Amino acid sequence: MAAPTQISANKCFGGYNRRYKHASSSLSCDMTFTVYFPPAADETAAAPSKVPVLYYLSGLTCTDENVIQKSGVQRACAQHGIAFIAPDTSPRGLNVEGEADSWDFGVGAGFYVNATVDKWKNWRMYDYITKELPALLASSFPTLDTANASIMGHSMGGHGALTIALKNPGAYKSLSAFAPICNPCNVPWGTKAFSGYFGEDNKELWKAHDATELVKSYSRPALPTLVDTGSGDSFLEVQLKPEAFQAAADAAGFPVTMRMQEGYDHSYFFMASFIDEHVAFHAKHLKA
Amino acid sequence: MAAPTQISANKCFGGYNRRYKHASSSLSCDMTFTVYFPPAADETAAAPSKVPVLYYLSGLTCTDENVIQKSGVQRACAQHGIAFIAPDTSPRGLNVEGEADSWDFGVGAGFYVNATVDKWKNWRMYDYITKELPALLASSFPTLDTANASIMGHSMGGHGALTIALKNPGAYKSLSAFAPICNPCNVPWGTKAFSGYFGEDNKELWKAHDATELVKSYSRPALPTLVDTGSGDSFLEVQLKPEAFQAAADAAGFPVTMRMQEGYDHSYFFMASFIDEHVAFHAKHLKA
Predict the structure, then answer these.
(1) How many helical (H) and strand (E) elements, i.e. helices and strands, does chain B have?
(2) Which helix (H) or strand (E) holds B51?
(3) Among partner residues B10, B17, B273, which is closest to A12 by beta-carbon distance?
(4) B70: distance to nearest CA of chain A, Å?
(5) Confidence of residue B75 (pLDDT cuts 50, 70, 90)
(6) In whole angstroms, what is the distance from residue B105 CA to residue B103 CA?
(7) Which strands make up the sheet holding A15-24, listed edge to edge?
(8) Considering only alpha carbons, which residue of chain A is nearest residue B9?
(9) What secondary structure letter does DSSP report for B3?
């Protein structure tokens, strides 16, 4: 596993946003990611200490940079002493025919699955997020306590966070999402992605990456979960379907705090407004 | 004076970012600006109340959108009940020959002056910020207490805030800046802009828009002033020269809090790290 190379660093709230590039074995291309190191865990600290990590999975079209620039998450991460991990959303630069034809499929739209359709064989974001990246962080950054991790995400990344946490019991201390795609098997974004990456007939695989399906059979350990969606989100009814996840969770006895935030839309302005609460939620469970 | 037309609105920290377009008489083109209305002063509030305003002048290449998306200023403005006014940085769309040849002159680089060189006769950002925009806000938005105003800015906009406040005693309750160009007559960005907008020989006009010159003769009323610059700012020595402003202020007996923030650079990450302190500083003086 090749060590990541730092490509930029910006001091922020006493810590540093550090952006890295590395050759990904899962995806067979170079990938970038950013880690926000809170003050105590940065290499510039007098006596750096180990801190928990919070993975953040981004939405369609995003890179690692959007949330780093627009959410203001560093403030709360500095306060609570949590490292924030922002990966990219798909392989890039592979020149697969048609990879950039759509903004909701291919480049920038990995949906956090391992594709089984041969054409998209390098789209293995599930392995990248659940295996390669944690191992890379553990081997590269001694101040990251990668065994003490939580996960969150936005939109497509909310789908990613929900499904990855539900499929890996015990791997994450807590889970949260902003405006997640809750039931991809039944919405246009999800059916387009799953048809493309898994094939139209592979419905069992579709269900294996659908949070509303996965929550039905989740047993333990407890997975504290917080979901915020905006009532003014233009994707709410057609793409997100939080009510489907809520109903399935309730039927399964899976406790989840689902909040509808009056008037908020799908943007980073929505996320910025509640990111402090999400980080505080994760901090409580990471420190337990 | 034509009323501004709203072109977007995003709920944020309980209030709204509202972006407007209007036909500017000072600049002879359409201009955009964004107002962040804190919860109590937004049109959606049950009983909207009047709030003070904080003008923010942006740096080179920026529009009104950068600070709205990247600084996280809305959080503190919501908390203190202050409206945040983000104008653009120059006229746009006038098709003056060469207007977009440089990133530090012409479009996106108005330097908050009224140009006297005929070719740039529409570059009247000083009038726009000090006269047209306040009048437009006063006539268009009943919840803005435009007589209760403070001003701040970043880089070129820090120069703008310093010079505009010093040239208009009593117009602003307080003044702050991030990484301002403090002595434009003596740095490359400033001499290029002033040569272009005023002509090479018009040195008295240059001095009339140089904070280090203006502070020498500022008398009253008291103008509480806070300036933050990062020690890791790559423009610090060649373009910013805070030490020149500090020396002139000290010699003139003008009280200013000038802070050097260890390791911070010129980016919005620097600004985001201290924006709460700047808003709190202005809130104290606006409420006095």
Answers:
(1) 10, 9
(2) strand B51-57
(3) B273
(4) 5
(5) very high
(6) 6
(7) A5-12, A15-24, A29-37, A83-87, A51-57, A144-154, A175-178, A225-230, A257-261
(8) A265
(9) P
**Which of A10, A52, A205, A269 lies closest to B234, judged by CA?**
A10
The mean per-residue pLDDT over the stretch A224-248 comes to 98
Number of residues that this document lists for chain A: 288
What's the one-letter identity of residue A58?
A: S
Q: How far is CA A163 from the centre of its chain?
A: 10
pLDDT, tens digit (0-9, with 9 covering 90-100), for B165-186: 999 999 999 999 999 999 999 9
**DSSP three-state, residue B33:** strand
Q: Which residues of chain B have a CB within 8 Å of the CB of A273?
A: 11-14, 74
Q: What is the separation of C-alpha B207 from the centre of its chain, rounded to a whole number of angstroms? A: 19
Neighbours of A98 (CB within 10 A): 11
Q: What is the ipTM of this complex?
A: 0.95
